[in-house]
Amino acid sequence: MFNKIKTTILALIAITSFNSASAMEHNHSMSHQPTGVVIHDPWVRSAPPNAPMLGLFMQISNNTNATVKLLSAYAKGYQRVELHRTTNQDGLMKMTKQEFMPINANGGLSLKPGSWHIMLIGPNTVPKEGEVVMITLKFDNGTTQMVHAVVRKGKIMIDHNHHAH
Amino acid sequence: MSKTTLLITVAFIVSIGVSVFSINTDTNYQSLKKELKVSHVLHNTDRKLPIFSLIDHNESPYNNARLKDKWTLVTFIYTHCPDVCPTILMDMVSLKTILKDSSLQTTPEFVAITFDPKRDTPKVLKTYMTYFDKDFMGVSGDQGQIDRLIKPFGTYYERSIEIDGKTVLIPNGQVMPDGVNSYSINHTAWLYLLSPDGQIFAGFPAPHKPREMAKDIKLIIDNY
Fold this sequence. Notes:
The structure holds two protein chains of two kinds. Chain A is of the alpha+beta class. Chain A folds into two domains: about 1-30; about 35-150, PCu(A)C copper chaperone (Immunoglobulin-like, Sandwich), CATH 2.60.40.1890. Chain A is about 20% helix and about 45% strand. In chain A, strands 1, 2, 3, 4, 5, 6, 7, 8, 9 and 10 form a ten-stranded mixed β-sheet that branches. In chain A, a hairpin with a 2-residue loop joins strand 4 (about 80-90) and strand 5 (about 90-95). The longest helix of chain B is centred in the first third of the chain and has 22 residues, at about 5-25. In chain B, helix 3 (about 85-100) crosses helix 6 (about 210-224). Chain B has one domain: Glutaredoxin, CATH 3.40.30. By secondary structure, chain B is of the alpha+beta class. Chain B contains six helices and eleven strands. Chain B has an eight-stranded mixed β-sheet. Helices cover about 35% and strands about 25% of the residues of chain B. The interface between A and B is medium-sized, with 30 and 36 residues.
């Protein structure tokens, strides 16, 4: 029993360190100006080959003591990239364009389906599952970050309750 | 047989008769409603679908007759929708997989009718819908007919356009200002189960839970 717990704890430590290590490496390699704002798990939802719009999602952590605003996003090969938020108002699903996304001090913002998301409008070619979309994020503290978002399905699949991602 | 035994026997037979009768005459599906977890029974003999004639993504007529003698799962979408509609369609993919694995004798037909036939032609819908599942069916057609059809479902949509940086909402049925080609659509996001009489039987509000929905659908079909 004790051994089992020990193994689990060790595994958790290993996973956590790996995640922080890759996040740090990611932040340093992708951004010329490390900001304390870290992007986790950026992904684009795979879509039909004629989809006029694509949704891009990620977790944004803000490890600084000041609120940071995501002002805009840019990706090559799209007519426009906009910041949006879906809200459910008494059953009416509303999508509203946002001027910015607030990332709270010592907090974060979760971009996910049915909530905050980045909208890739008018793709030259719809990327396929497994491909990577490079996206540049511009923040109000004067920094930019480039992230690599993998295209994937991103819904719970029906393989015995396991998540697809 | 004593008088008492006879009375008890008669009372027993009568009570069985009453209970069988009440099950068979549960026309409002009261007992079924209590068992359902994520669906609302919308069955209402006074609220029928209008006569409609739309067009499916294979360019064949899609009308009331297409809903007869089978169960159909219907939703309303538009392909310029980046977030809500793909989520609904992925939920339908999950639901279909679960239903196929269950002991249901028939899997309902999965249909998505567009709010936006101007941009969502049958050709566009075919490419879009079959990406999710080769057997999913997209339906387009006349905007006026679609607007009339959605009423008994309780479905609502409005177009959202930007004029001089301000959002203007155009409710369904109202004409768009000239020259506006860029718009998004706010809409309800229910799924509906239609019974083999071609009428709405139940509705499933968002967010959808495919596993619970599958259980409810099985209960509904078994008790119909």
